[in-house]
Write a structure and sequence with these properties.
alpha+beta; four-stranded mixed β-sheet; two-stranded antiparallel sheet; about 30% helix; about 20% strand
């Protein structure tokens, strides 16, 4: 089965407030995140996810892919699916979807370009990573609100120690 959902929490909330008569001064804002989901067994999941995210210009697409999905097929079909929008992702042992905790699905999260600026950096070898240079490069852009997101493959035994080091340094 194919499930597609598009986050529209703010739009629904604002519309309900307007309908209740409190529409004066209530901003009608687009959702901060867009989401779409599809069954991992779908023969063309990327098209379903692309269509589910809609036509809002995106800064980034994040894919959370069930371990049961045909990953090699998904990766082979990925180039160009979202145009020039960067795509990052990881496999999961369960996905958080519009219906709660889910299995055997692919969830896409779109970060709208109007609200997000994104730089992606490929780190091919965590053991050779110069952590301070990366932090200075990635977080030195003088953005008013910035945060790093690290997606590391599960087979990398260094990911936990790297993340733990960063948490200890932040204290």
């Amino acid at each position: 089965s194919t499930r597609v959902s598009r986050s529209a929490t703010c739009s629904r909330t604002c519309a309900a407030a307007k309908q209740a008569g409190s529409g004066i001064g209530v901003p009608i804002l687009p959702p901060l995140l867009l989401t779409a989901e599809v069954a991992a067994s779908n023969p063309d999941p990327l098209s379903v996810l692309r269509d589910g995210l809609g036509d809002t210009p995106l800064a980034l697409v994040i894919l959370f892919v069930s371990h049961s999905a045909a990953l090699s097929n998904l990766v082979a079909r990925l180039p160009g699916t979202f145009g020039s929008i960067p795509v990052i992702g990881c496999t999961t042992a369960g996905e958080i979807s519009a219906s709660g905790y889910d299995n055997d699905s692919i969830v896409a999260v779109g970060l709208p370009a109007r609200d997000f600026a994104v730089d992606t950096i490929l780190i091919p070898d965590l053991s050779a990573l110069d952590q301070m240079a990366l932090i200075e490069n990635a977080l030195g852009k003088d953005q008013p609100r910035e945060f790093p997101v690290v997606v590391a493959i599960g087979t990398s035994m260094l990911r936990q120690s790297w993340a733990a080091d960063k948490m200890l340094e932040a204290d």
